[in-house]
Amino acid sequence: MATPTARPAQLEPRERDTAAQLTVEDRRELLRYMLLMRATEERALGLYRQGKVPGSHYDGRGQEAVSVGSAFALSPRDRACILHRDLGAHLIRGVTPGRVLAQMMGRVGGVTNGRDGNMHFGDPGLGCVGMVSMLPDMAPVACGLALAFQMRREPRVAMTWFGDGSTANGQWHEAMNVAGVRRLPIVFILENNQYAYSTPNELEFAVDPVERAATYGFAGVKVDGNDVEAVFQAAAEACDRARVGGGPTLIQAETMRMHGHGAHDDMSYVPPELFEHWAARDPIETFEKRLGEEGLETESLHKAVAETLERETEWALACPMPDPATAAEGVFATEDPVLGDGHAPWSRWSGRAATDA
Amino acid sequence: MATPTARPAQLEPRERDTAAQLTVEDRRELLRYMLLMRATEERALGLYRQGKVPGSHYDGRGQEAVSVGSAFALSPRDRACILHRDLGAHLIRGVTPGRVLAQMMGRVGGVTNGRDGNMHFGDPGLGCVGMVSMLPDMAPVACGLALAFQMRREPRVAMTWFGDGSTANGQWHEAMNVAGVRRLPIVFILENNQYAYSTPNELEFAVDPVERAATYGFAGVKVDGNDVEAVFQAAAEACDRARVGGGPTLIQAETMRMHGHGAHDDMSYVPPELFEHWAARDPIETFEKRLGEEGLETESLHKAVAETLERETEWALACPMPDPATAAEGVFATEDPVLGDGHAPWSRWSGRAATDA
Amino acid sequence: MPELTYLEAITDGLREEMRHDESVFCLGQDIGNFGGAFKVTEGLAAEFGRDRVWDTPLAESAIVGAAVGAAVEGMRPIAEMQFSDFIACGFDQLVNVAAKMHYRQGLAVPMVMRLPSGGGFSGGPFHSQNPEAWFLQAPGLKVVAPSTPEDAKGLMASAVRDPNPVLYMEHKHLYRRLRGEVADGRYETPLSQVRVAREGSELTVIAYGAMVHTALEATEDLDGAGIEVVDLRTLCPLDTEGILASVRKTSKVVVLHEATRSCGIGAEVCALIAEEAFEDLDGPVVRVTAPDVPIPFSPPLERAVLPQVDQVRDACRELLGY
Amino acid sequence: MPELTYLEAITDGLREEMRHDESVFCLGQDIGNFGGAFKVTEGLAAEFGRDRVWDTPLAESAIVGAAVGAAVEGMRPIAEMQFSDFIACGFDQLVNVAAKMHYRQGLAVPMVMRLPSGGGFSGGPFHSQNPEAWFLQAPGLKVVAPSTPEDAKGLMASAVRDPNPVLYMEHKHLYRRLRGEVADGRYETPLSQVRVAREGSELTVIAYGAMVHTALEATEDLDGAGIEVVDLRTLCPLDTEGILASVRKTSKVVVLHEATRSCGIGAEVCALIAEEAFEDLDGPVVRVTAPDVPIPFSPPLERAVLPQVDQVRDACRELLGY
Ligand SMILES: Cc1ncc(C[n+]2csc(CCOP(=O)(O)OP(=O)(O)O)c2C)c(N)n1
Ligand SMILES: Cc1ncc(C[n+]2csc(CCOP(=O)(O)OP(=O)(O)O)c2C)c(N)n1
Ligand SMILES: [Mg+2]
Ligand SMILES: [Mg+2]
Known about the structure:
The complex is a heterotetramer, with 2 copies of chain A (357 residues) and 2 copies of chain C (322 residues).
Chain A: H1 24-49, H2 64-71, E1 79-81, H3 87-93, H4 97-104, H5 138-151, E2 158-163, H6 170-182, E3 186-192, E4 195-196, E5 199-200, H7 201-204, H8 212-216, E6 219-224, H9 228-243, E7 249-254, H10 272-279, H11 283-293, H12 299-318
Parallel strand pairs in A: 1-2, 2-3, 3-7, 6-7
Antiparallel strand pairs in A: 4-5
Helix pairs in contact in A: 1-2, 1-3, 1-4, 1-11, 1-12, 2-3, 2-9, 4-12, 5-6
Chain C: E1 3-5, H1 6-20, E2 24-28, H2 44-48, E3 53-55, H3 60-72, E4 76-80, H4 91-105, E5 112-117, E6 142-144, H5 149-161, E7 166-171, E8 179-181, E9 195-198, E10 203-207, H6 211-219, E11 227-231, E12 234-236, H7 240-250, E13 253-260, H8 265-276, E14 286-290, H9 299-305, H10 309-320
Parallel strand pairs in C: 2-3, 2-4, 4-5, 5-7, 6-7, 10-11, 10-13, 13-14
Antiparallel strand pairs in C: 1-8, 6-12, 9-11
Helix pairs in contact in C: 1-5, 3-4, 6-10, 7-8
The complex binds thiamine diphosphate (2 copies) and magnesium ion (MG) (2 copies).
């Protein structure tokens, strides 16, 4: 059925890294980041309810395993365009919770210093290009990042996330097709959280979009998006493949958005049974239970995360609002872009030079 | 693999028409329209070389079987958004060759009276909505036509054509996805003429785009685009299916553009072997040979077509250029749209009331 | 007459048009079951069915394109962008397909494109834009921008009945903040006619949408000067006569809008005046607009960027003293 | 100095930039093997390889988006739309992603977007447009529009080196009709500086792109009047000082462009003058532009729509006699 892909790989295939191995410490880190994401979002929601967060508020409650599991596979010099449900990915790249809270509150010290709000950010210094609201506009942009790696023969990967709703959009298709034709080193994470705002899957597409990957000439993988290790495994394999010239991968992570689209949305369109089904499969509880059964201690993580959040919240609340006199500054750049490298907490990357990703 | 389509059919399935039957007269008509298309385009090219056609010139040499075979399946009240390679479809709907020539020459009497040129036209009075240059913008528009039929519970079909190049575009995807989700009564004809301008298939997509139909939830059919009866058969089946609520079909017709993208293009990018391969499979010669072997007389058609062309050319050349004083008129409409019905030469439609399509 | 919010007036307009004509239908994201991101279409799916209030996939080009196709086939679609900012994603279908259809082939496209626009509530760079001026550089589109509940309903009726593609700019910041009397039943507010929101003879402030209220507030009692406020209501085609009539009367003009400055509606209005009413002018034509920057999220920044009452007042004072 | 056509000067500019900096690359439809629809990129694939001159699929949003991504990652992409008209299909990536990137997150986007634009050769409604004004309503984009071979090359160099997204409007009708001396090697023509194409003291005609030549021809010998022709060269950010300096000198202004009228560049220039140079004006600011219609195909219709020498002459005469 599939004709051979049109463009040969740009890079000489090299020895694949041995299958992704997680140490005990890695697994604790996965849990810690999920806890940190949830705690940060809960705090942000609290600040929103106190009226300290202007505009709207969006979070990724229930989707922690997707963002943490996938971003954990990235090396320092990989690049990420992160979605509004994926705070965990930002945290893994090295954005501190305080900066996230300051971002939401529109303060200096937030990632965009009040220029943009909500989850519309990405720290260029940590290898991230912040999303725009138009979905999924970062998919073509991520193709451009991957194109740069490919042209410079660098073994690096671009990763980008989008929702089920985004798969209906033309830009999604253009990105997938271009990535397939050029065999770009890119990993697409499709978070199927069952709804695009209030619109259920069956009004968005007639067939599961992961099926489309094959028709773009690359692998499509469906994983349990509430199992952080499964997501990680799929992402690590996809990154390995991309790094050696094996082209893109589409990973469809099945999950559920457990909060409204935004804080204003009561989710009345979600049947209670569906909600309950997913509530029983909370990604953090499931994973913590698994670790506990294996005898790992996790209680101390809760305490550490809670302490971090206190400190970070305090820091964020001490950040000033931006100076209105600066409002019109910075429309045009005067210097060339410099994307820095991100953190990469997976043990595979420690001890390696960042350039040796 | 394919999950069930999301939206149930809007129409009660009714008895399928018996498999598309072509009478001897129908088959002669297919040949006649192909001859008429080729003769009209040859004449237009001649006028272009004489400097009587301003701007550029595009034709569908070699693709006659696609446009004629598919449009022949349409009923009077069906609607068509026709591509720049598909003059045959216009002729079948009832546009006279003279109006086409006048159109190319930018004259009053041309389908757009000089407002637009080339193949950018469609006679609203004959149920056509003229294409724009942006490809494949008519695909979403055709979805809108089909949507109107579906909402009004009318057993009618929208047909639209696009090239292989267009399948890379986001609007193509949006149209296919929406058509699949709503199970619209629409027939998509993908003319794979091996190139998008100078760009060969392998730089356009990694996998044959007909494979994608299944991932949008509907049938994808690949046919020999140089066999007018095969194209017709696929189109007739697709129309029948659409008319009874069976949803869209994507028909991929394999063919070859035997002229340059435009008259300025010498096709130097086409390997001679490829060109020769297709030249030996000319859709008109092949079909005429088949009819001849079955004992059908076809010579008189050539003569009739030649005579028609003489008359029509004369008519076109007698058309005046538009009055410059009218150039700024008609930007805004003052009356509601009225799309008329098209001709439908297939014998199945004769004797039926137009409304009974 | 009942008092409705600006938002309720739009809903009322939609409902009346859908009751009046079966061929009117709505399409857009989350407009059915959910009633739309702002609840403008709330209740319509219940009354008219999910087929006539279609929850589309997230596909702006398909939404606009399908509206065009349905319109030429005799329907009267009302398409919604969830925010006007997203029109950039369906831009090509509007400016190349819808706008040029009638000029090219004499085929009318009676569709309405609802564009919830404007800022003032920390929507940030992607939920606060005022994209109306783009469409004046795409001949064939009409643009309306109601500023009152009464006009919101009446312009909706006119937009639906007009045989052309009409972009309907509804200002989000007015949705629930503004109330006004709105007549029951169907009525149409004529297109391309300015409304004199307040009469005056010493200076004219020309505005539209939410800024009409900023203009009124700024000039309500400005050192006793008689300041006329002209509400454009239709941005394309402009009511040039209505604009020039006020300019001829007052000889001084401030043009105010929330959209960014360069090549905005204000530029067109100023150019029109500089060309057609030069002799009537007693001072420069002054623009008060957002500067050429994306609309920032943080409240102090957003306030600094969006035109404020004080700025309008200062501009008027300066011009009065000219 | 060699004489080059406008088209050759663009090619020369591209070649020099690609030789100068390995991170410069081109992407677009049919630009590699075929050398582009207009042969502007001819020879580049042979010299620099098909990877640096990428024949993309027919996907404008992907082209613009990929350029944005590559740019922030340290490349300097030069993307081509086959005709500027197709920018409507990649519009969202430009106005929402590229334009706002630096303001939002301090990340520069050094990319060039080549837009072959303009009419005059029966290109019809979809191959003749001049979409430049849209981008002034999308803060964060720069726009240049060279009128001579010399500037075509020099502005290409500046556009490539600028850390911002720069839209490069290349007028198709000048491609092979205009020749001029062009220096060998790299040189940069500064952005945001008008060029006085001809000095004069009685009236200023402000134009850009192909219309600069229409302006020069129309005013070459106009009843002996000393008419200044100002070539804007950069449309965003405008050289407001350069414009106002000429207006202050001549006191009379005709603004000329090929794009349609409403909310065009001309509107912005007129508004600027009406606001900043009111006291210097000795007459209305007159616009000569295409009317608000799609550009028709048929030669007599197209001629009637595009500004012609005679119209400019008439406008100048009338204003001189004011
Ligand atoms: C192009 C575009 N159109 C409309 C919207 C408005 N909108 C914001 S989120 C959303 C739903 C997105 O659904 P999905 O892609 O599944 O992401 P999720 O929020 O479920 O993670 C919509 C329609 C948008 N952001 N972008
Ligand atoms: C959106 C868009 N981008 C670019 C073009 C310029 N263009 C005209 S025809 C063409 C190739 C089209 O290829 P295909 O779809 O295969 O149709 P064909 O001409 O081969 O029938 C291109 C790129 C266009 N018409 N529309
Ligand atoms: Mg979703
Ligand atoms: Mg083709």
